[in-house]
Amino acid sequence: MPPEPTHDERLAEFEARIARGEKIEPGDWMPDRYRQQLIRMISQHAHSEIVGMLPEGAWIGHAPSLRRKLILIAKVQDEAGHGQYLYHAAESLGAERQDLIDALLSGKAKYSNIFNYPTLTWADVGMIGWLVDGAAIKNQTMLTGASYGPYSRAMVRICAEETFHYKQGKEMVSLYAQGTPRQRKMAQDALDRWWWPSLMMFGPPDDDSPNSAVLMRWGIKLRSNDTLRQEFIDEIVPELHAAGLRIPDTDLRYDTDSGHWRTGPIDWDEFWRVIQGGGPMNRERLRARREAHDDGLWVREAMAAYASRLAVTSDQ
Ligand code: FAQ
After folding, report:
1. Residue 124 CB–ligand 1 contact under 6 Å
2. pTM here?
3. How many domains does the chain have?
4. In the chain, what is the greatest distance between 2 CA atoms, to the nearest angstrom?
């Protein structure tokens, strides 16, 4: 019998598979650090989708037309589905769903900075679709190429759905930006409040990103935080200008030498404060999640009872 491969041999084979563009699947050998990093990132992503239902969900009862209401209900429901795929992907790495949920509800787990800001007007719903889904698509299109199979496949479906979200947001805000003075003001005010937090969604600058090196080494992240942020800025700035909106950055300029739009400095103190629980809506978001979790207890109990009944009858 050939000798068991050593850890170094396994690692070399694992890295060779990634270099060949093969996907790593749940039962395959993987370094513990790869598994832990994926659980961290995928679970934060899942929590973001679930908490991300709240800012827009609050407007379902106030939608200005039946059409807008149907679109918004479908969008919020999609985010719930994304959370489900992602929790499953984390479970395929050995994580327990209950532990992940407990970490979210106790405030221990992180989720995207962006969902700790309030949705003050209806235009915020459209701006989330345009900017937040737009930023999410930019990041997650990269992740369709991630080395872990279940995560990359979840991203393909999620990106397809996020593209609808982005389009409806852009359509809505563009309409208001060309509408009555009140609508124009509402659209501009939404951009003023969501612009900077959307740029922060891509994570801290590359020099302050402790996880990037290992994620890039093992083909989970294929491009850096700053690279994706710059790609997003280059795409979204002309779109916002074309809609007649003013970007709230007096330093914003087009650099003809590099062909990139350059923004003024991002307030990274605000970012760290928000992701450590000090944003305007962190407490409210967790309160709402805990309440929803408690209210859903009877559903979980009913499903568990149904499943055990099925198990008994299939034994007979
Ligand atoms: N928010 O070392 P890095 C959506 C944390 S989905 C909060 O650079 P990494 C859909 C980071 O966790 C939006 N925390 O981290 C939707 C780390 O802390 P830790 C979510 C952040 O992992 C739309 C520390 O800072 N998308 O919007 C953020 O290499 C509309 C150092 O950072 C994903 O999760 C942040 N923005 O890069 C839903 C995509 N950025 O864990 C509803 C997958 C960083 O060491 C409505 N995730 N941190 O304590 C990723 O691509 C990456 O994890 C990054 C961060 C890019 C988010």
Report:
1. no
2. 0.96
3. 1
4. 80
